[in-house]
Amino acid sequence: MQPAVELKDVSFAYPGGPEVLSRVNLEIRRGEFVTIAGPNGGGKTTLLRVALGLEEPTGGEARLFGEPADGARDRYRIGYLAQRTRLAIDAPATVSEVVTAGRVPRRGLLRPFGHADRDAIADAISRVGLQAQAATPIQRLSGGQQQRAFIAKALAGEPELLVLDEPTAGVDVDAQEAFGAFLGGLHEALGVTILYVSHEFGAVERFVERVILVRGGIVFDGPPAELPAHWHDPSHVHP
């Protein structure tokens, strides 16, 4: 079985700028729960964008499910939760309507929804514990509930890879811990590959199988138990 994500000798630089990533090699197997962490400006977001085919590497190769990342078909196989600052919406959409929109990439825009689609939507809402809020406008939910609603939107497409970019930014420590436990349970129940990207990883450290620290390249890749103590704060990571 092809890995979910492969980076082979990948380098990247924005036009006219210095190199952000240098000769990165990375393989994320299907079913893994992995966190990518590192200081702001260390390259983790760029690595994510290259891995998802949103940026083309200046050197090397990025592959998704065995295909070139920038030309990968069936993008519904990826559920992507963007940073919290990008999640605000003005329309008075309910939780159910938001989650239903997440089914469209798999079903197609013009094909009517069938029983399997409605079941997938209901299951996604149930898995994040928002059945009672399904008809509630999303603006009336707490920040944590909104995050769960958008995860349900990603799950509605039955993705094979769930990508979460800074999902706990601006959230207090208790809420981060609760969110980490929620993701751990979700991973155990579904077996979906989870890629959790954050400048810190304390919320999910008990649940992830691998921690990947990025600062211009990969400076650590292994289980959390093997992470040197002074690297638990990625802002102190040095290449």
Side by side, the strands of the main sheet go 6-7-8-3-9-10
Helix amount: 25-40%
Secondary-structure element order, N to C: EEEHEEEHHHHEHEEE
What general outline do the C-alpha atoms trace?
Answer: globular
Task: Calculate Rg over CA atoms.
Answer: 18 Å
Q: Could you say which structural class the secondary elements and strand pairing correspond to?
A: alpha/beta
Name the CATH class of one domain: Alpha Beta
Report the major sheet: 6 strands, mixed
Strand proportion: 15-25%
Number of helical segments with 4 or more residues: 6
Gap from first CA to last CA: 32 Å
Q: Which regions have little confidence, pLDDT < 50, spanning 5+ residues?
A: none
CATH fold-level topology of one domain? Rossmann fold
CATH homologous superfamily identity of one domain? P-loop containing nucleotide triphosphate hydrolases
| Total beta strands | 10
Mean pLDDT: 86
CATH architecture of one domain: 3-Layer(aba) Sandwich
Characterize the structure shown.
The protein has a domain at 5-92 and 161-236: P-loop containing nucleotide triphosphate hydrolases (Rossmann fold), CATH 3.40.50.300. The protein has 6 helices and 10 strands. It has helices at residues 44-51, 95-101, 104-107, 115-127, 143-156, 173-190; strands at 5-13, 19-28, 33-37, 59-64, 67-68, 78-81, 161-165, 193-198, 210-214, 218-222. A 6-stranded mixed β-sheet has the order 6-7-8-3-9-10. The protein has a 4-stranded antiparallel β-sheet with strand order 2-1-4-5, covered by helices on one side. It is globular, with a radius of gyration of 18 Å.
